[in-house]
Amino acid sequence: MKHLLPLVTALCLAAAQHAAAQESPVVVELFTSQGCSSCPPADAILEELAEREDVIALALHVDYWDYIGWEDPFGDPAHAERQRTYAHQAGRKSVYTPEMIVQGQTDIVGAKPMKLSKAIADHSQRPAPAALQIARDGDTLRIEAQARGALTGPVQVHMLRYTPTRTTAIERGENRGKTLTYANIVEGWQVLGQWDGQAPLSMTADVTGDKPLVVILQGAEAGPILAAQRLR
């Protein structure tokens, strides 16, 4: 609980100072696992972030701690691979939990609310390199984007869905005996295509169900996130 008071103070201040950032929210990815005893404080931070309109908070549960004794039901090897790609881009040979990546660029180890708040504020102040709009009509999602200047390299168009909240009673592993709540649990992450940023982007994707969805424009190979939008 000691993490929550500074978190609330820091993130409320940041939200007040950067309300205009909703045009393109800042993406915060948390790599976490139910089998990691260090992760619950970071999970609680993400739960607070999930309430903010100027932030897209995403929990990517990894599977590499499952061998300890508890298989994370939300774990996905694709999430671990995405984390390894970030590590490779940063010149690191290993991955760890909890880890937060802000806007595809800033790495934060563990649960550090003040450092996280500063990273979000810093990225909020930077103009988005691309304007992104998404709209849903039934089972069709329309995606449109336009670069606001020359882009360096190809851009990938990502789409994902998430479950807003789930609570799990953990029976084994490092967190055994705890009942933990998780927010914005990512599933079905996919790359829809690639965009060169020269001509305006216009594309559609098939979507079903009523879970929230997110579209992210990101430099190839886990590069910087250029823009993101969400439909709840």
From TrEMBL:
Residues 1-21 form the signal peptide. It holds the Pfam family DUF1223. The keyword Oxidoreductase does not apply. Keywords: Signal. This is DUF1223 domain-containing protein.
